[in-house]
Amino acid sequence: MSKRLHHPHEGHKIKHTGWLRAAVLGANDGIVSTACLMLGVAAAASGGHIFITGMAGLVAGALSMATGEYISVHSQQDTEHAALEEEKAELQDDYHGEVHELTAIYMRRGLEHDLAHQVAIQLMNKNALHAHAQDELGIHQFTQAKPVQAALSSASSFAIGAVIPLTAALLTPAQYAIGGIAITALIALAILGVLSAKAGGAKPFPAACRVTFWSALAMLITFGIGTLFQ
Amino acid sequence: MDNQNNNTPNSTPARLALKSIGRLRAAVLGANDGIVSTTCLILGVAASSSTEHVVITGIAALAAGALSMAVGEYVSVHSQEDMEQAALVFENKELHANSHAELDELTGIYIQRGLDPQLARQVAIQLTQHNALKAHARDELGINTVSKARPIQAAISSALSFSAGALIPIIAALCFSHYFTLMGIACASLVGLAILGFISARAGGARALPAVCRITGWSALAMAVTYGIGSLLH
Predict the structure, then answer these.
(1) Range list of H helices, A110-146
(2) Which of A65, A156, A162, B129 qualifies as a cystine partner to A34, CB 3.0-4.6 A?
(3) From CA A183, how far away is CA B71, in angstroms rounded?
(4) Phi, psi of A10 (to 5 degrees)
(5) Residue A149 has pLDDT above 90, yes or no
(6) Which residue out of A16, A46, A71 would a mutagenesis test of the B interface target, given it has the greatest number of B Cβ atoms within 10 Å?
(7) Residue B197 in contact with residue B206, Cβ under 8 Å?
């Protein structure tokens, strides 16, 4: 384990990707959906309610993100829990069968039979449920979900994202509102793409291109649908 | 519950659910989001201005939300892939440059998991011989190669599930007459959410009632809050 100290980056970034992923997804969603919504309504109803719609979009989106994230993380927890309970019951009913199962898993990973058997016995001596959770079910401790934390972080990242096109709508003169909203949103998305790629150790340029291109397309389509209802 | 002596390891419902949990989670999240955000938005706008543009607002919300979900999901799955790829490339380089240290590291992981040092060493050696990168990816980074991400599939499925959810309040808005529009939309959405909660709990092998209560309770609160903020802007 001491080797970890020489490589502080290794195995580190990947562990907080869940967190980072949720935050990026939230902010992205905030920018894109609020901008799209305002553009769609602007195209359909000519000015007027753009800001109020955007405001309602911010609140609705943030709360919906929070609710959705809370519920989905909770249901993931429920499912993991149910699988662990099942595993626990199996360990009680048929300990030998479970030793065989773990042995088979390690043989598939490339160990010889005798060695795999010893591994299974020693791992299960330390913590049988833990060993099966990790090697059979793929539940690692660090992926264990926290519903309230997930809800709060995705709601706030959505709200932060949504504030950007809203501010653009407030600051640009009415006749340029549509262009102002779209351009501000796209610049913010490009910056977000670069930051998240950098943070994750990936290349920033393709990430920024991806997010701006697809978001621009989304805005165009919503605007187009809006014009149909004019 | 099935017969527990069944020897095939992946046969029980909870375990099958755990395998497909990513897909289930994305679909539930999408549909949920479609219902809640569209309903909240309609209620917020209706409270602040009038009920006249309810359907147009709803349709704009459907399009904006579905496309935003698709873009977000596509980008985020892609960026996750990029990160995993970057971590694997780094690990691969480490394995070539520093194979001894990497062997020590894998040994250390297995000692921590409860093997005695000698056995852990043997395990590390054999795992490395079989597939060094795979062993490190799994035991050190927590990447299971089975769960490969597919950006386009994820994007399309979450956009579809969002749209399916968003259609519920829009249809309700079309069906209910003037006086009952808002109540009708809210009720239809809560019923939709309850059904969704029930199905997803069942599919995930969890108990249905708490899931249904959770989903309807929090969503009703979200709707009330958006309506309240909308009335403030009135």
Answers:
(1) 113-132
(2) A162
(3) 17
(4) -70, 135
(5) no
(6) A71
(7) no
DSSP state of A166: H
Write down the pTM of the prediction: 0.74
Contact at CB, A115 and B201, closer than 8 angstroms: no
Residues in B 48-67 with any Cβ partner in A closer than 8 A: 48-49, 53, 56-57, 59-61, 63-65, 67
Chain B residues whose CB is inside 8 A of the A36 CB are 60, 63-64, 67-68
Of residues B204, B208, B207, B230, the one with CA closest to residue B13: B204
Residue A186 has pLDDT above 90, yes or no: yes
Tokens of A57: 């979009």
Encoded tokens for B139: 């035991």
- Report pLDDT digits (tens) over A68-102: 888 777 777 777 788 888 888 998 999 989 999 99
Cα–Cα distance measured from residue B77 to residue A134, given in angstroms and rounded to the nearest whole number: 23
One-character DSSP codes across B100-134: HHHHHHHHHHHHHTT--HHHHHHHHHHHHHHHHHH
List, as one string, the DSSP characters of A183-213: HHHHHHHHHHHHHHHHHHTS-HHHHHHHHHH
Q: Judge whether B68 and A32 are in contact, CB under 8 Å.
A: yes
Chain-centroid distance of CA A150 in Å reads 9
> Cβ atoms within 10 A of the Cβ of B29, count?
25
Q: How far is CA B115 from the centre of its chain?
A: 35
Backbone angles phi, psi at A146, to 5 degrees: -125, 105
Q: How far apart are CA B105 and CA A2, in angstroms?
A: 8
Q: Write out residues 183-222 of B within 8 Å (CB-CB) of A.
A: 197, 200-201, 204-207, 211, 214-215, 218-219, 222
In contact, B60 and A226? CB cutoff 8 Å: yes
- Identify which of B33, B23, B133 has the alpha carbon closest to the alpha carbon of residue A79: B23
pLDDT of residue B137: 85
Alpha-carbon distance of A223 to A217, in angstroms, equals 10
Structure tokens at B9: 């390891």
* Euclidean distance between CA atoms B21 and B13, whole angstroms: 12
- Rounded to 5 degrees, what are φ and ψ at B41? -60, -50
CB B34 within 8 A of CB B166: yes
Which of A7, A32, A41 has its CB closest to that of B60?
A41
Number of Cβ within a 10 Å radius of residue A130: 16
Torsion sign, CA atoms B25, B26, B28, B33: positive
Q: Write down the H helix ranges in B139-207.
A: 151-175, 181-203
Q: Are A166 and A51 in contact (CB under 8 A)?
A: yes
Q: CB-based contacts of A55: which residues, under 8 Å, 6+ apart?
A: A166, B44, B48, B229, B233
